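Working notes for the structural subgroup meeting. M.R. asked for a predicted model of this chain before we commit to crystallization trials. I am recording the input and output together here so anyone reviewing the notebook later can reproduce the run.

Input as submitted:
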Amino acid sequence: MTISSAPTQRTRPNDPTRLAKLLNPQSVAVIGASDDPLRIGGRPISYMLSQGFKGKIYPVNPNRETVQGVKSYPSVAALPETPDVAIVIVPASAALENVTVLAERGCAAAILFSAGFAETGPEGAAAQQKLVDVAHAYGMRLIGPNSLGLINPCNHFYGSFATGVELGFPKAGGVAIISQSGAYGAHLMAVATANDIGLSAIILTGNEADLTVGDMLQMVVADPETRVIMMYSEGIKEAPSLIAGLEAARRARKPVVMMKVGRSAVGSAAAQSHTASIAGDDEVTDAVLKEMGVVRAQSTEQMLDIARLATRGIYPVNNTLGVITVSGGAGVVISDAADAIGLPMPEMPAASQERLLKLLPFAAPRNPVDVTAQYLNEMSLINTFTDALIEEGGYSSILGFFTYTGGAPSIAPRLREQLKIVRAKYPDCIFVLCLMASKEQIREYEKDGFTVFEDPARAVIAIEAMGRFGEAFAKVPELPVPKLPVFTLPQQTPSESESKTLLAHVGIASAPEHACASSEEAIVAAGEIGYPVVMKILSPDILHKSEIGGVLLDVNSDTEVRENFVLLMQRGQDAAPQARLDGVLVAKQLSGGVECILGVHRDPVFGPVALFGLGGIFVEVLQDVVLHRCPFGVDVAEQMIRSIKGAPLLLGARGTTPVDIQALAQMLSRLSVFAMEAGPRLQSIDLNPVFAMPAGQGAYAADAVIEINTI
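Returned structure, recorded in token form:
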């Protein structure tokens, strides 16, 4: 049997009831509690008391009988009952003792404010691991250490010392925030609160010694109060829990919008792989998030905009934008913004345009639909024209630009009345307004079912994201991956010939070829294959043959074969004196196909990731490629192939012959399964070029490099 290369989940407790208690505790112990509400040890208690937490609070402080008016206990052992959750606010040196007693008593989870662990170096990391080992021995879960904590505005549990609440405590709502950064996560909470976004949870994971962002994602997906999830990540510590959480969110139709910061190239250790040099860390992360239906935000503002609109719960599968505006200029701004991100804005039907022009001859009814300032005299035009956009134009999303008139006392009440009529008729349509008004007026529009933005470009980005969520939620089950025959990976990096033999065993075809140890063998091979042939140096130590002149094309005679054999062996010796030279590979020279690249790179977080693109200049210069986690079926492979910008060259652009897409997809799918089943010793695969032949004629790898990790 082959070894799976999927990243393994750490052996950890897996009791969802403990996580449910973490988010909704009925009793909370505060270890290191302070009577001063402004100290770190006093803030959680102060916050919970001021906001009306209904559970029991057990301060632990050996020096006080009461803390902030609440009975205090000298130790964890002295508590009258086992708390659901403990907040640990003690020096690092005292953390293990307290965690041990809590775990022995059966506490469900602990939030560790305590710092001085893995963030300080190897000694701190070892101490941190002891915390985890003790907790897991009793099934207890940990947030942190070095965490800013957890807040649940729905039940007023404040397991945090985040001072941002002094600007305003978050109101209960349906948006959860999960952040690896404590300060930035608290910043997100404060900004969301300032923008009147209701929150269901704020979770600040700290060092993630135990619970990761993926674990916390699974927790909030299971939370009935949470409808939308915002995530901030600086580095993905553990892929399996994140993937499981994202898949659970997709199945539950809970949108995830994520800021993943930190863009870096793959390290020099991967430079040998052509695929790896293209598939940088951030590109892989981006591909995985797209695969899982996550919308990746580029800024805090963008993340909050998308989350706010997502709380409406409307996610169209085929999203189109219809615009009604009182400004032609705004219509242009909106059209440009939509075009830039690929949000379709089809024209209104010709018959509808004619009808609307009869109602208002100087209107612009194409889309955007400009009702001009005439609507100030005939407010019913808003109702009539918007109704036409939806009923006749069929748009799933409507953006209305009304600027300052939306807040003008002489206009706003009548405008709101007309908009409410249309909104009531089409509850499954996204309605967004761009206007300026007081906070009180905006709240009234929001209560009516509209989401309000000042900037139309921001509104367009949020609207487009709803369509991406809709497509993710409507995703049909993928086809099963192909089954491959059992194979054995070689102990070290194989030669091209050995690589192709192994790949042929699992159904990945290459051009007819022969490995030849002498010029006479090469002449015989060329005669069997038929001229012209390609001759290539054959060595497991020379992976990139073209760089040393080790590939010769258009070889047309026995004499040329003999001369080229000698030439290639000499070039190999000169370029790599220590290399093993096994001879020369003689292969059929293919023509009439389109050159592609297929590859696999082992990502340190997500495991093997497959790459597809056009070969030649398209991959070297334009880097027109698509990435996907392995393994996947033929349907996903075909979607990948069709998604690149150069796909028309494969599909028959300008009268050219379409290539064998099915054969190409089969090859890509099989490669992905091979990479997963090969195990962690497989570092990378490059098939470049692969000739995608005309429809019905197959696809063949002209070169193959399999890199084995011997470490």
